[in-house]
Amino acid sequence: MGETVARLKRRADFLKVAGARRKWVAPGLIVQARRRDSGAREGNDPGAPEPRARRGGDEVDPALVRVGFTVSRKVGNAVQRNRARRRLRAAAGIIGKGVVEGRVAGGVDLVVIGRAETLTRPFPDLIDDLTLALKRLDVWRNGGTDPEKTTKRTR
Question: Which run of H or E residues covers position 95?
Fold first, then answer.
């Protein structure tokens, strides 16, 4: 992935994305999205305490896109789950190149969830699923080269 893409690794970050309740379900994967507001409090409660600082005190760059991957045990054993995660990372890597070209909006956290179909779905279709999900979640910007046109299979 590019310089403007980072990984989500902390459980709290995954839960924040899930709590935003913005998701798109495609045959090969599920994508959850959350826009990060700079300086905004979490939740709707005006009396809520200020959020704790991240470990190490580092703030998240507002132009950064953070992506996390998860695959549940429903998909299969450890070997199958790892294979599904690798396929999702590869698809996101191809889409991640769009971040550098300005196709994916910054300041967004994404969680890509693998499904049983992730293992058997043809890779170009998996990329199309991810691209469509990003468009439906209003994360995809118009302009630049569309991966749907550049990654289609030629037979």
Answer: helix 78-100
